[in-house]
Amino acid sequence: MSALPGSLETDNQPPLTVPLRHFFVGLGFLCAAIIVGLLDQLLTFSAFTGVVHLHLLLAGWVCVTIMGAMTQFVPVWSGTQIHSRRLANAQLLLVTVGLSGFALALVFGWLALLGIVGLVMMVGFWLFIYNLIRTLQPMTGLDVTERHFVFALACFFVLTTFGILLAVNLTYNTTASLPITHGSLLGSHLTIAVFGAVLTTIYGAIYQLGTMFTQTKLHGIDHQIQTFQELAQYLGVALLAGGRLIEDLLIARVGGILVLLAALSVAFIIGRKLLEMQVDWTPMHRRYVIGVVSLVFWSVGTLFTWTRDPLAYDHLFGNPGTIHILLLGVIGFVVLGTLYHIIPFIIWIAHYSDRLGLEKVPMIDDLYNQRVAMVEFSLLLSGLAILVLTDGGILNESYNILGLGVFGVGVLLFIGNMTAVVYRHSSYSIQELLFGTTAVSSNQ
């Protein structure tokens, strides 16, 4: 993979509607997750509200965004062609239908449907895995970003398999005859999802984007730390998930410590690149700073918790007081920061890059409203701070509603800012982008 924007093989990317459709559907799931989270604070309308909220946030927003980003940038960075554009469109349709059905089935108690809608969602993710693996063939000479992506794809396969087993078990209690419990399977499933699929993808992408858009390079101790981080991440996720599956405290403890060390390694490398940055600050960089700081706080705050007991349900995502730091501070801010660049980048490449040098064209960061970006950043940070203070017991639990509400308004401003980019600078309308034909004549 290349490190400089000027050497990207942009001719290999799929049509811009493919990733953009993923991004905006993912943002729709994020809005739904915030709404469900707020309703869960106000009233209990389903015993599975928390499960719905978590799946809309992670499987809906984060994973659908990952699907769109990988589909767009793996071919670009690797200098190859996407294996199939039709599969790229089909994966989004199946995951959207499956996850929507999954959420509705849990909310209304239609547990008999979980296996069916879960299967639809699983097939969508499997199409994504297959399409990307075929795109990366042959699997030789992969760089650190590509290796992270391959490990993340393997995690997607395992977690979706575990997910369908969990869905079926809620109806038929299939784990009763197995040497594992529903709780241990759930713990392993969530571990692989958050730390295997999501964080590994983020680490791989941020290695590429963090150097590319700070105009820096890894040097000195960075290379040794990166090598350690990669091994610690892969082994740590495997041991933590495996230890939780068979309920072995020692294995899970070792795995958890390795996962935390890998996180601190990434924070060190990317934090160092931000300090060495050779370009002006953008919304992407500011959100990466919050992501790096949050990664350090989550890792340090979780170290004692996982050293003592990584098997407890309350400790699945680390110290209970750091859950929002991980989910919103690390994952949320990094994903939103990345989208602040790649959505305008995709639009700019498609509509302005060929005019560069021939006429006056806007730069990538001119496509969105800078003032809205600053207000949105302030709201996101304020909402996160309220939620973290509530998790830490400094504020009353009733402030969770305020924190989610403030964060939600920030999300709406982000969506509005990105929608305006598409509306003003793209030849596609929002309706065509979301609901237009998904078929492409040149598809494989």
Describe this structure in words.
With 444 residues, the chain is mainly alpha-helical. The chain folds into three domains: 7-140; 171-342, no CATH class; 368-434. Helices cover 73% and strands 0% of the residues. It contains 13 helices and no strands. Helix 9 runs parallel beside helix 11. The longest helix is centred in the middle third of the chain and has 31 residues, at 182-212. It starts with 16 loop residues before the first helix and ends in a 9-residue tail after the last helix. 49% of the residues are buried.
How would you summarize the topology of this molecule?
Elements: H1 17-42, H2 49-78, H3 85-107, H4 114-136, H5 144-172, H6 182-212, H7 221-246, H8 249-275, H9 283-308, H10 323-351, H11 370-391, H12 399-425, H13 430-435
Helix pairs in contact: 1-2, 1-3, 1-12, 2-3, 2-4, 2-6, 3-4, 4-5, 5-6, 6-7, 6-8, 6-10, 7-8, 8-9, 9-10, 9-11, 10-11, 10-12, 11-12
Keywords:
444 residues, mainly alpha, 3 domains, 13 helices, globular
